[in-house]
Amino acid sequence: MSLDSSRSGNSKRSFSNSISSNDYIKKKKKKKTTPNQKTLGAAWGSKSNSRKPAFSDFASYMTEKNRKLHNQFEAQASTSSLTLSASLFSGVSIFVDGFTIPSNQELRSYMLKYGGRFENYFSRHRVTHIICSNLPDSKVKNLRAFSAGLPVVKPTWILDSVAANRLLSWVPYQLDQLANNQPKLSAFFTLKSSKMSEDAYTNDLCQVVSDIEDSSMRVGRSDSEDRHSSKVGDMSELSGQISTESDDTIPENTNAIMMEELTSVREHAGGSNAATKDERNVKGELEPAHQAPSTSFSTPCSDELNVKEYPNSSGTKPSKQCHSTLADPNFVENYFKSSRLHFIGTWRNRYRKRFPTLSTGFNNESANNSASDISHNSVIIHVDMDCFFVSVVIRNHPELLGQPVAVCHSNNSNGTAEISSANYPARSHGIRAGMFVRDAKALCPHLVIFPYNFEAYEEVADQFYSILHQRCKKVQAVSCDEAFLDATDSEVEDPELLASSIREEIYKTTGCTASAGIAGNMLMARIATRTAKPNGQYHITTEKVEDHLCQLPINALPGIGYVLQEKLKKQNVHTCGQLRMISKASLQKDYGMKTGEMLWIYSRGIDNRLVGGFQESKSVGADVNWGVRFKDIKDCEHFLINLCKEVSLRLQGCGVQGRTFTLKIKKRRKNADEPAKFMGCGDCENLSHSVTIPVATDNVEILQRIVKQLLGCFYIDVKEIRGIGLHVSRLESAEASKQGTVKYTLKSWLTSGYASIENQKYPMGHDKQNRDSTCSRACRDLPGSSVEMDNKIPNNQASTNPISTPPPLCNLDVEVIRNLPPEVFSELNEIYGGKLIDYIANSKSTSENSSPSGNSFLEQAIKKEEELSYSKPVPQNNPLSKNKAKQNEAGTGEGEAVPYSVCGPYFKLPAHRRAEICSNVVVAPPLENHSLSVGIEISENFPGSSYHDNLWAGNPPNWVGKFKVSSCLMLKKLAEMYYKSGLTSTLSLVLHQIISEFYELNLAQQFSDETVNIMCELLRQYIKVKIERDIEEIYICFRLLKRFAAKSQFFLQVYNSVCPYLQATVDDNYGGTLLL
DNA sequence: ATCCTCCCCTAC
DNA sequence: TAAGGTAGGGGAGGAT
Ligand SMILES: Nc1ccn([C@H]2C[C@H](O)[C@@H](COP(=O)(O)OP(=O)(O)OP(=O)(O)O)O2)c(=O)n1
Ligand SMILES: [Mg+2]
Ligand SMILES: [Mg+2]
Description:
One of its GO terms (molecular function) is DNA-directed DNA polymerase activity. Keywords: DNA damage, DNA repair, DNA synthesis, DNA-binding, Magnesium, Metal-binding, Nucleotidyltransferase, Nucleus, Transferase. The chain is 43% helix and 9% strand. With 1076 residues, it is of the alpha/beta class. Among the domains are: 104 residues, Rossmann fold (3-Layer(aba) Sandwich); 166 residues, Alpha-Beta Plaits (2-Layer Sandwich); 66 residues, DNA polymerase, domain 1; 127 residues, DNA polymerase, Y-family, little finger domain (Dna Ligase, domain 1); 113 residues, no CATH class. Strands 9-10-5-11-12 form a 5-stranded mixed beta sheet. About 41% of the residues have low confidence.
């Protein structure tokens, strides 16, 4: 993707999509000179091109296989020993209907292993659950009829139950089409299925047209005759003969029509061309037969042509303009539903979920044989679906074979919608993925446009991978339409035979063709696939590597994109052969060590990577760089709240939590033209700020607070924003935290603490004083030209001085406390200096809050520790309920700061008592109390004088006026910063702002104690205001102050004076001290 | 030297 | 109208 200016800084080159389209055209012209890809024969035997027979073949094959497996099942079941989990599925007897992910064999083995039954044949008496993946509607209706009320459940129910080690409710796993209310996570993880009716139609049609395909595609079987030659099988070549030789002789009746999903076609009464009419006819024949049983599925939601609608997605805003953040309050969600790039970008995560065992890494086992010379005998196959998005949506339109077709949101001949995929006839006109549809139409006016069908892509991808996993043990997923197989140890001797049979099965199962490249390593296999396409396969044997690469343009090498290609072009390198002329040392000098190495070995066809599964993901994020327009800050904040929700859901969906949060903003570049693309981001500066917190979280409210602060760092006019992204990194497994393995203890919070706010692109305040060079000077003044605040506390301090404080009262679970045995209670009460009894008395009796929502990350950290060390609930017999409304929550949303559990105090119990109650507790030395008492002193009796004023009241806050007229330059500066930072009463932003002017201040200047006191009071009052609701803000402020303290006597004194109070207050509220 | 952070680049 | 996302690799340059 090339946005108008994804490039940073002052790069001159800023290209729009239309320009890059031109790039494509040029490249294309060059490519056109490459020899026509001829094929030597058709692949897969004429008998199996009809889809229906293909399916039944597949089914009977599976049945046979299952029979065998059933025998094995019985055998194994009788001998397998019972384990703890062996009764997981006791009483559950599943019948697997149709194609599933994972395969029915896998499901069967799960059932066997965990005490369930697996039925090969449906029987109402024996089967308790029908397991089924999403199906076409027609099938669903049948299924519904015959299931007779039995639950029809998706296979993930089994997987998740196994993962959870308990039998989960099947309700949330009901088949989408059968469930009234499918619980939804986000558009990200569940593909909604509102277009099912169209799907059903598509499948039905498929069976009808299969005859046509059969007769029109006289494909012969001949996959043996081209061993070691080149291409095997090419149906489109044949169909090319049938239709037309030239791309320019496309029948007129398809001119500029939009091949809509057929349900939509029906709406267009005028159906003026043959193809449309035919379809309508076909549909008319089929529909009644299959849709009779139930009408509830042919929902009206498919009326809208290109906009996907999902039943449960806030069914409020059905029509209207959903094309920008201005018009659509639910923009984030709706946008992602329609985004192709979102679809392919998130596919990997869905795959992970569907193939949990198969997608994990397995390349280590063979690491030994490969270290030095991997090439020696490896056989790698690369399989890639041909023009995937197009193939899927036109598989039931034989009349379009040989005609140029593309998938795109729009058919507007001067629109700026992007082509997602173009079939091969279209490519011969120069049409490419990523082009604007208007450019594509200019190249080929009779280009046929189809809309997206994401469900179908998902389904085909599942079938694709199911086949691959079935045929090969080592599969590495590249994308939804593409994978590597390590066929070195395959049972099938001949890799070409393996490849062709896999391709055949893919075609029979999906109705779409795939191509395959075979070679000794992944690089060459991938390169071979290019030659093989479309619908062919190609084997680059070791001897042929040299020849193949010699003339190959360098951008055919994976890893060489636009930029690298241009750089190499400047060195007059255009082909791999030329690239080889350059020494490795030279390449490494010019392009870096790894890149240089990569260029050197790739140009020689060397690639030592191993086929392997996925590794753990390192970051999770969401970007929206289209349709983003805000009229005011409210718009922007609303959008960010939704973006946080999205990211939080994704984190949870991945089972991870993160510590570093980065907010990216695309800001319209000054004097930039209107974006070439409708609602696009155009020419932008890319800005970003990030913050790292000490404990990983996936909590949406924490995210929202962090993001709000990050947004403040930009000092940006929201009208200038053209794109926003939120990314989370430094991921940790959420599972691990729940299981309480070491990671998340209060101790770790306080000792590994590290927070930073960084302006990555520009130093602080850049936007305000845009091209003010003094600003960058100011920032260079700070280490790393950022305000990153490092935690310098040595690690050993953590271990020698573990946290010794009890958790704050507010974190205690009132219910649990009430239920403590009296003697334990009084011990605890002592620990809390008698406050516990009051606390309990004042607490609401309800404290149901299982999720950590609304808690600061500190609270969460504490909670985690508690969870890990406190296990058993205590019997109920406590006399201590007074049930007064909790008072201490003024101004806070209800339900926040709700108590959790009671473990913390046990830290202070004597060892033997601790052992009694909780055997696995961190040993903690006694609490040192001095800071606490200091804190109380300060907060309780701060002297009168002017400090008494509420410095944070008013607008602007009172302190601003006071500081403005102060004789102290530093205070004046702060007041000034208040205005500069956009009238924010968020202190961290004001402090942040002052950084950019730090250099101006005479840091050694004189200041009075009085000045220090005023500043201290400001901070104390701030702490008071924020401590309950926003400890993050306090944390960040004090990290900043600490930074300042290193440079300024003034701030040093302030910092030293206030810190004790800060720590006491934190201790009081949270039972710990902040590590600054 | 080695690590870490902030980006850019690439691929689908 | 239109849905320009996502995540990993790695280079440059600073911190250690
Ligand atoms: N810029 C792009 C690139 C790809 N895709 C989507 C549509 C493609 O169909 C799918 C797979 O990408 P491929 O690179 O495999 O391209 P195709 O499968 O379309 O064509 P080919 O036959 O070259 O594989 O990803 C997209 O939407 N936009
Ligand atoms: Mg493809
Ligand atoms: Mg692909």
